[in-house]
């Protein structure tokens, strides 16, 4: 069993979820927070099945920071 830190974003058309610290494009989505979390868990399991659990070694960050930045557009 391995724990993953998952970011879940709420957008106008649903939710998007993705794990932190995993190399590759792993994304889940759904109409609810729970659906997005379930979908990303399935995506992670498939990723491990395809690439092997070795791909996950030393991928978890020790600390995670969320910040904001203003950028002129």
Automatic annotation (TrEMBL):
Domain of life: Bacteria
Source organism (scientific name): Phormidesmis priestleyi ULC007
Protein name in UniProt: Type II toxin-antitoxin system HicB family antitoxin
